[in-house]
Amino acid sequence: MNKKFLKLELDFDFILISITSQLRDYRLCHYLNKVLNFDFVKIDDHEISLKGQSPKFYSKYLYYIEDITPFYYLISNKSPDGYLIPELKGSDYFIIIKDFIDDEDLTFLIQTAKSIPDVQALVELDPTKLKSKENLIF
């Protein structure tokens, strides 16, 4: 009997930015909206369900302009049930940018978001190098 195996490839074609800040998620969104002229809105929480465990929920916000890319997501790394990306316990939030953004706009976003007084650190990360990278797929 021949055995067939299917290989699942996940798409990590997005930009990941880690934010360290003691601000609550809604306050961080307010400041990001203000300095970047964005309009993040709260959407359904990001749910992670692992076999044999109860689901974990992480707050999630979205900003996009209809018919124009990219999509910007702000996701909390912490919940009462644990971390979204456990190996990055120092990170409080992640900005995920899906679809195309040019280098100039990305640099502007990072530099401007760093100017928020309560943001201690803001770093671009390579999602493919994370141990728990599959938790960022939605």
Relevant terms:
alpha+beta, 138 residues, single chain, 6-stranded antiparallel beta sheet, two-stranded antiparallel ribbon, TATA-Binding Protein
Task: Report on this structure.
The strands form two sheets. A six-stranded antiparallel β-sheet has the order 2-3-4-7-1-8, with helices on one face. It has one domain (about 15-135): 2-Layer Sandwich (TATA-Binding Protein), CATH 3.30.310. The protein is of the alpha+beta class. The longest helix has 12 residues, at about 25-35. It is built from two helices and eight strands, in the order βαββββββαβ. The relative contact order is 0.26.
**Strand count, sense and closure of the main sheet?**
6 strands, antiparallel
- Continuous helix count: 2
CATH T-level fold name: TATA-Binding Protein
The number of distinct β-strands equals 8
The outline comes out as globular
Number of domains: 1
State the oligomer: single chain
Query: How are the strands of the biggest sheet laid out side by side?
Result: 2-3-4-7-1-8
Helix content: 10-25%
Organism: Pseudopedobacter beijingensis
Protein name: IPExxxVDY family protein
InterPro entries: IPExxxVDY_fam (IPR047690)
Q: What's a concise summary of this model?
A:
By secondary structure, this protein is α+β, with helices and mostly antiparallel strands. The chain is 17% helix and 38% strand.
